[in-house]
């Protein structure tokens, strides 16, 4: 059984290696010097936007860590019956449902409205024949879902559950799909975020450095007369599109249950075009883990092989669980930056750059974000209560190389190379190479937390 597992794992690593060398899975290039990092910090939100229906929190994308990775990070907390208003972004977005359930829709240019309601009576006081509503696809959301949204695709989210719906989001601003600069931008189709009026609040929250996440209603810049003509409505109705007096923020409360055409719970599994492509993948079930050690933990991944839309976004995703005092083998990602978000517990993490310097050595707790640049070596250990985290990776097929364990780089070196490299005996070299039989997760006998 073990032989079969490791044969399968080796095949997966070989396929991942081959796909990585195609060169089509990565994000855009970075300017020289942006990743010359001597210190990485575990970060928390730098500012927040309060809304009627929830809170949006933003990390400082101007920090060296995020500038190196070319991404920005946000967290949205949507209250029950909260509707996150439609918006699109200048770069691809990958989101993870941390808690709760809901529904969301993505509007893809040129795709038909495949959801159609039965004919309905016009609203009271209005004349006319029965009308039928049509709109593009809607998906159910639940904890553990990974959602992929292309640059420029408008989308919205609604919390139809009885608890908060929490989403953590990475926007890949350095992606080739973004032809602007690396500042994150949200183009809203409704609402009035009033970002300019909230600058003082933003600065008080954590301190503001440089340009922050920009958002605004695109209809506000268009004349009422042009809008009336474009939509073939009267000017009073056209003026409402601008939401000039709307103080609810980008997340609003729906007074009654949102009336939309909901999809069946099961999909037919067919993905023929972008219009019908799968836009979410659930990663929460432990049975779908790619790597599992019953004494140490598990890792589940989503890449372009399991979630084809990620090939367009050039992003991938992973979820990891470490048991008490367990260690994730020292490793590096060969072709991607990694944005780590702790979802439970605390994690002792060490990160080393190309100079052999420890650019980070400390605890990262629940709710904090740590950016690990491409090729930087990293090791993680859980505390006494264990730890869970998710990783957003800037390649459609992020590939990992380990330094210890059964499939590690050390295991691939000849014994004499190891002995001479470290000036040790062949017996010591043999122990270094073969002591660990596990692949990625090692059971730990003691915690390093107290030794910091």
From TrEMBL:
Record's subunit section: Hexamer; each subunit is composed of an acidic and a basic chain derived from a single precursor and linked by a disulfide bond.
Annotated CDD domains: cupin_11S_legumin_C, cupin_11S_legumin_N
Protein name: 11S globulin-like
Signal peptide: 1-20
Alphabetized UniProt keyword annotations: Disulfide bond, Seed storage protein, Signal, Storage protein
Family: Belongs to the 11S seed storage protein (globulins) family.
Highest taxon of source: Eukaryota
GO molecular function: nutrient reservoir activity
InterPro entries: 11S_seedstore_CS, 11S_seedstore_pln, Cupin_1, RmlC-like_jellyroll, RmlC_Cupin_sf, Seed_Storage-Functional
Residue ranges annotated for the Cupin type-1 domain, each copy included: 38-239, 281-430
PROSITE patterns according to UniProt: 11S_SEED_STORAGE (PS00305)
SMART domains associated with the record: Cupin_1
Reported function: Seed storage protein.
């Amino acid at each position: 059984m073990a032989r079969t597992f490791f044969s399968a794992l080796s095949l997966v690593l070989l396929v991942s290696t081959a796909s990585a060398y195609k060169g089509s899975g990565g994000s855009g290039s970075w300017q020289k010097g942006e990743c010359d990092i001597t210190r990485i910090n575990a970060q928390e939100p730098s500012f927040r936007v309060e809304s009627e229906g929830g809170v949006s929190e933003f990390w400082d994308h101007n920090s060296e860590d995020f500038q190196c990775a070319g991404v920005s990070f946000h967290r949205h907390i949507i209250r029950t019956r909260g509707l996150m208003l439609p918006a699109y972004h200048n770069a691809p977005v990958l989101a993870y449902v941390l808690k709760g359930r809901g529904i969301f829709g993505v509007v893809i240019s040129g795709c038909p409205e495949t959801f159609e309601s039965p004919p309905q009576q016009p609203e009271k006081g209005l004349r006319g024949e029965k009308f039928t509503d049509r709109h593009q696809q809607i998906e159910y959301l639940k904890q553990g879902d990974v959602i992929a949204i292309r640059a420029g695709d408008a989308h919205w989210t609604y919390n139809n559950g009885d608890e908060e719906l929490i989403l953590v989001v990475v926007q890949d601003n350095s992606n080739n799909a973004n032809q602007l600069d690396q500042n994150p931008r949200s183009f809203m189709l409704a609402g009035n975020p009033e970002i300019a009026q909230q600058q003082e609040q933003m600065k008080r929250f954590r301190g503001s450095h440089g340009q922050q996440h920009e958002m605004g209603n695109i209809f506000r810049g268009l004349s009422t007369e042009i809008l009336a003509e474009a939509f073939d409505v009267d000017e009073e109705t056209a003026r409402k599109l601008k939401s000039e007096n709307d103080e609810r923020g980008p997340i609003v409360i729906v007074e009654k249950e949102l009336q939309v055409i909901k999809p069946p719970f099961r999909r037919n599994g067919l993905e023929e075009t972008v219009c019908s492509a799968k836009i979410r993948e659930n990663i929460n079930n432990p049975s779908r883990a790619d790597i599992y050690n019953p004494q140490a933990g598990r890792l589940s991944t989503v890449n372009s092989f399991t979630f084809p839309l990620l090939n367009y976004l050039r992003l991938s995703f992973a979820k990891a669980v470490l048991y008490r005092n367990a260690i994730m083998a020292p490793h590096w990602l060969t072709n991607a930056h990694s944005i780590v978000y702790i979802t439970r517990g605390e994690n002792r993490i060490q990160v080393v750059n190309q100079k052999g310097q420890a650019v980070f050595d400390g605890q990262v707790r629940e709710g904090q974000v740590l950016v690990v640049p491409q090729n930087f070596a990293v090791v993680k250990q859980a505390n006494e209560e264990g730890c869970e985290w998710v990783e957003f990776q800037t390649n459609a097929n992020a590939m990992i190389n380990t330094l210890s364990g059964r499939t590690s780089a050390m295991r691939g070196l000849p014994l004499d190379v190891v002995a001479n490299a470290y000036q040790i005996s062949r017996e010591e070299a043999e122990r270094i190479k073969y002591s660990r039989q596990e692949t990625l997760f090692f059971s730990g006998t003691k915690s390093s937390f107290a030794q910091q």
